[in-house]
Amino acid sequence: MANPKTELQDNYVGVFDGKLTPGKRGALLIVDVVMAYLDPDSPLYAQAEDALASNERLAVAARAAGVPVVFTNVEFQAGGKDGGLFYRKVPSLKHFLAGSPLGLFPDTLQPTADEVVVTKQYASAFFGTSLASTLVAQGIDTIFVTGFSTSGCVRASALDALQHGFAPFVIREACADRHPGPHEANLFDLQAKYAEVVSEAEATAMMAGLGSVIA
Question: Helix, strand, or coil here: 170?
């Protein structure tokens, strides 16, 4: 019997096997690493403790290399009217109403006073925000993407990074999802079509050479 995994990989050879390379300046984009995905009592809990630890290490490495670290979170006004159809489609987004403790960053991974925090209402870190302009102003052309969830806001942000002209590198160990199936499927698809999926070690090595000299 043929191996479905091998058949799938062979089907992509020569069609979806291009490569992106890092540019000159990088940034680490930490997408929605907030308590909603880390609190076992949360309906959005994603068993993401290992990914959190990876993000903690990557933030330290990025700061040491002079790579800007950008955080995103999600927050809606009362009633979720600023969330539009997305808020209507995903009822659990009510846990991101302004003031919810589930929208907070964990104690072990907090933005510093000079790091950018992008508050968004939709999946992509770029949609309806000033993120692209902020990165361009700093000379950034390469983005290392981490966070939660792989199939949702990480995927949307990596895709929009590509569409805005930034080379996206999604860091495998630093992403998490509610189930390994969607996690692995979306990493596979991102690698095939929209980004480079790299290990934490590979990303750390790349960041060492992509520190920004622009304040």
Answer: strand
